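Assemble and predict.
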Amino acid sequence: MSWTLGIDVGGTFTDLCAHNPDEGRTCYHKRPSTPHNPSQAILAGIMELCEKFGLDPMAFDRIAHGTTVATNALIENKGGRVSLIVTKGFRDLLEIGRQVRPEIYDLQKDFPMPLVPRERRFEVTERITRGGRIVTPLGAEEIARVVTEVAASKPDAVAVCLLFSHLDPSHEQALGAALKAAMPGVPVSLSSEVRPEFREYERLSTTVLNACLQPVLDAYLESLETGVRDLAGETPLGINQSSGGLITAARAREFPIRTALSGPAAGVAGAVHELKAAGEPAAISLDIGGTSSDVALIWEYQTRTVNERWVEGYPVRMPSVDIDAIGAGGGSIAWVDSDGLLKVGPQSAGAFPGPACYDRGGDLPTVSDANVILGRLSSRGLLAGDMPMRRDLAEAVVTDLAEKIGLSHIWTALGIIDIAVVNMVRGIRAISVEKGYDPRNLTLIAYGGAGPLHASAVARALSIPRVVVPPHPGILCAQGLIVADQLEHFVRPLHCALDASLPDRLMPAWAVLSAEADGWFTSQEVRTEGRVIRARLDMRYAGQNFEIPVAFDPEAPFDLGALRDAFSEAHRQTYGFDNKTAEIEVTSVQLAASGRHNAAARFGMLEAGEGGVPDPFERRDVWFDRSGAVDTPVYDRTGFQAGQEIAGPAIIEQLDTTTVLFPGDHARVTEDASLIIEIDQ
Amino acid sequence: MTAPDYITSPVFADASELDAVTLEIILSGLRSVADETYIALMKSAFSTNIKERNDHSTALIDPKGRMISLCERSQPIHLSSMLGLTGALLRKYPLDAFRPGDVFISNDPYVADGSHLPDVNFSMPVFVDGKLLCFMCNIAHHADIGGMAPGSMSGGMTEIYQEGLRIPPVRLLTDYRVNEDIFDLVLLNARVPEERRGDYNAQIAACRLGERRIHELAERHGISALEQAFEQILARTYTRMTDAISQIPPGRYVFEDVMDDDGFGAMNIPIRLAVTVGDPAHEGRIQCDFEGSNPMVRGNINVPFRALQSSVVYAMRALLDPNIPSNQGMLDAIEIEAPEGSMLRAAFPAAVAGRANTCQRVIDVVLGALAPALPDKAVGAANGANTMVVFSGRDPETGKDYVYLETVGGGFGGRAAKDGKDGVQVHLINTSNLPVEAIETEYPLLVESYEFVENSGGAGMYRGGLGLRRTIRPVGHTAVFTGQGERFLNAPWGVFGGAEGGKGGFFLDSDAGRQPMDTKPGLTGVSPEQAVTVETAGAGGYGAPEQRDALAIEGDRTSGKYTADYLRAHYPQVKEA
């Protein structure tokens, strides 16, 4: 084994993390992104990293990449020109969607127009209904007719979504073959391949997005792969998908929609790894960035998977790590509402112009400005010191706000932070009710540039007893890519009752899934010992519309009672009750295959020191509440030794973040260089 | 009418006033309670109607019966009926009759101020240190509450008794324990009792979660701070609303529209409104007077007062301040009058199940009245209906009886700076459609089309939205169809010169051709050789068609949403081809 390289491309920064388990070495590098052509920053970053640490680019065994290219293409409306084929009578389905408005009281607001305009939506005469029964066959002449029309519309990519194709894909496949024959080189997305799942609109929307992104990811990955090959030779390039595993670049080009939420998923993988080192199996991850915060639940070192997401106003049915975004971050703007109450966000100053204290022309008070005023963020800026924080500018904008609500600028700054924290807490609580867990039983792991700054306050408000701050909170996504599993889901619909007849249906479906998984492991060069297979059944009470996944062991003898009990338990966990007598339906069976790499990686090993308390490098006045400023020691985290302890109040600075300990908090440095903070309740 | 007491005589002196930060933090906590109970109800309910269509709402109401915090995701039409139940409780019982662990249930429009029978309200008094602090309330639309027809929403009935089980305010729980006698009674009177049981349990669970959350809030902030916050939130919202109202030029604005019919022969039923702004006697509040509207009708489109209030409040919020919280402060700034016994203030025993159609029209009327005063915010008349399609029968494959009910959206009116949205639920209604694959999997029906109705959005500088067409055919059996249509006879009007939109209709299709049906067809057998097509109304345009941008007209043509004939007939700038 030699080096693995993780590359996370965000809107502002491109982060790189290289790890060699044999040498126990980890190297980090951060550089500005190049949004117009993200691969430029990546290739430059690889060279800079190698130069900085004396590495040979040819020594990388694997490169793992998290990308926002797909998401950005959607935000900037730069996807390909797509033509669409649908079942006759349903040309408008893409535009009708679920026939709802995004905000009920807003007469002006609409969901975005579909990515395929009506004139490029083509109907084909064919029909399949319940049970996969063909009502109207799809004839050869009809195929020829529609393919000719589609070709004449000159698309960059074609999407095909027919009713009930998740039960019988034959019509879509026939169209797919004809389209490829007639338009070589034009990618075709079939809904039965992109996501063979019940509910036509969501499947359609997902398929259209996939088609729209195909030309974009094609071009991007082409240039990236070429560049990487020139630089690092034939190193396998894995792309992180939204569900938190790595897929090959070829697969990402086929199913680009799977990468739409690539970056945050890598962060959670990094968080899980740090939690393992810290011995904390159950946690909430809190990644606070400039405009928003990402929150995920981790249970027994596992994240949950969610099957539906909204991406830029369009629904996407695709497994992704269950991460929720809350509209509160360091750049969130504070303002006074028309009823005189102080509000924070959801508007954000973003990276440009950014908070007033950045001195880039921002003239609105933000959470970061409040942090500078309160002394929690140093006016020197982060430790590298290349971007000082202008406290005077922060005070000027916060003082303006303070006058509107009749409080001092200090109390207003405290109010801004408190309200930002309350917004995060409200978001986390709503999510916890939705997912059925109690935050009080969990640990908080905080990362992102502003996570450790607010973690203690968030934990206190949620009655969370403990916070983990990983060694490099600002680069956790790139680090997460190093440990990301190669992952794939395979699914077969079942639609049957949970009774003694289930094995007759389940076993053939499982055999198909297993064969698919074996093929995939082989194609991904996953070694036998790294192959992990998990099985689950999606079940619900007859009449319900949401399924709950229940794990089962396909090797064990079929045990109806155990499955019923497991479902009841899961239902009780999720919804707070169960119904022992109700009929249970099994809607589908899923196989999750993962290939493990670097499972034992340790990133931040510290020399064991003699314990005790590190020496602060300065002291400054910090406000924690309205009772007054507290003379607070400030520490440089780079000098910490394992076993050292710090009592709050304290400020701990490092290159990529600042950690705040409130009075009464108590932090300990682990040998993996994490901080574990016990919160004073 | 005078200003509310939290304005004229604040309970708390200035000295104890909470600052803008503390108040926001408490308010956030209160919103959190409403949001969390909403999610809990959604996640634990059994029926599609709640889980998938989210036809439910949650709120926190104080012991004076005032709305303090309403979950933002609530259905607007549910707003007032939660107040209705709590108000009825406060009239029925002295405050010391409430006990921790009581949970009340009701649905009746006449004795419990509900809005129609399928909407079942729950209310739970919450005590802190032995003191009644508030009521945790929720409401859910149940897929059936008994009565003559499955779904409890059908037309063809003339009094409330036919529409389902009437539940007065009664304790479903005492001391946190379900009163099984009442539960059995309620369950026996609805179809699919197991689904009802699941949904009621979800409503109870939501109340109890709310109680826990309130206790936590009280522990953090103290009961006195919470009570102060209630007063101040209402006062601030009231002032915010009267400020918003003051943007309307003072004057009296009148408008009138008609409902097509009630299914019992009453035709072109008028709704009349006079809105008054700037009357000094009313100190900044707005008055909506529906004097002159039609008396109650035999059909089920009558509106209980609480549903009228919900509709007017929706329209005012959408026009004046879409982000204002819907609490009592906002409600108190809107004065509503309607003659007792009129269609808009129905009296016992009027049938009300189809009130949503009328409520939708009330909103069009309010928007129409204020259009001249607020031209930037005005919109053309929308679909303005709650077009309902019901199929029932026995599934030939499973042998089980089924009822499929759905409401179909239509056009949204043209706006001051953009076209109206095509094919969408409008105003009060924002419930999802059922996926075609769900319909066909659950019911022996084939959905043959689901598409826009061409030419149905009225021409204008900004055109109205298109209506929807859906064609459904029974498979292997003869199904029974009933429906309720509105704006099938009277087209949605445009504003500032915009043209009217297309009307809707029900049609019976067969080899013999397409036959129009009634606007509110009664039980009609439909064989597999036949299909029912519903077309909903489009919407009115905004501004004169002459001013429509040439590129936009070109888009209307290339998209195929309009025919060349329509464009030539409505846009003088379109030259003969």
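The longest helix of chain B spans residues 193-221.
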